[in-house]
Amino acid sequence: MVKTGIDAHNAGRLVGVSPQTVTRWLAKMKADAALGPEAEFDGVVHHEALSEQAQQAMDDFGYFRRRYFGRITLPWQEEAAYTTVELLATPVKEYIVSNAPPGGGKSTLFTHDIPAWLIVRNRAIRILIGSRTERMAFTYSRRLRRSLTRTRPVRADHDDIVKGLAVDAAATLVGDFGRFKPLNQELWRADEFMVANFDDEETEDKEATVAAYGIDSGFLGGRYDYVCWDDLIDKKTIKSQDAMDALVGIYESECETRVEPGGVLVINGHLMKA
């Protein structure tokens, strides 16, 4: 003899749970399954419920990078992060120009670590990450999304530990601050994504938290609080006067105009040999 079970709604009736509640539970279970491992971190942790370590990370950028990414922060990197926050508090458009040698970590700092810190501090912030190509901009976006959904702390490379450049991360962002990935999967794309907010009501009408564009993307839409254009200039873009004029035209008409009053525009480049 084979015994068969009953469906969820009939089971609910037996224990006094309404069909509407059962339907809501089933929908959440389906959404959680689509979210993946980060679904165990249900909802967003409000500021008053944050741990002491999480509250410290919101204010201390060096501690933030070490705790969640295992990075040792240099003085100029801390200065860049705190300057960005100070400039975001002014009512006018502000500008940062960063030039550093290749391999100095400037792209990681301005396209990943500072944006992640800004999102943790204010989930309503609007960020644009731009590069010469759409492909590279999407790479930056995917890296940021991975950090916002990682459920296990980052393990540092052994050689970097020996050199004193990195340590094993102590925690994850979702572990300390709750879920960032929205329930609506359509709002979590490579070209743009929206993080879950405190009301957990994400709609298509809300602006994206992060958008990724290349200068080869064509029309750039939206206005943003933090805009970073990374490595716009290379040997190809300065090979001739026409190439330089074309880049300047795109920058003036598209790149610079994406910043809201009160926002910050970062031009992040590297030193090039003549």
Describe this structure in words.
By secondary structure, the chain is α/β, with parallel strands linked by helices. It folds into 2 domains: 1-35; 42-270, Rossmann fold, CATH 3.40.50. Helices cover 41% and strands 14% of the residues. The protein contains 10 helices and 6 strands. The protein has a 6-stranded mixed sheet, covered by helices on one side. The longest helix is centred in the first third of the chain and has 17 residues, at 19-35. The radius of gyration is 22 Å and the shape is globular. It starts with 7 loop residues before the first helix and ends with a strand.
Please outline the helices and strands:
Blueprint: H1 8-14, H2 19-35, H3 52-59, H4 61-69, H5 75-88, E1 94-100, H6 106-121, E2 127-131, H7 134-149, H8 158-163, H9 173-177, E3 192-193, E4 210-214, E5 224-230, H10 241-255, E6 259-270
Parallel strand pairs: 1-6, 2-4, 2-5, 5-6
Antiparallel strand pairs: 3-4
Helix pairs in contact: 3-4, 5-6, 6-7
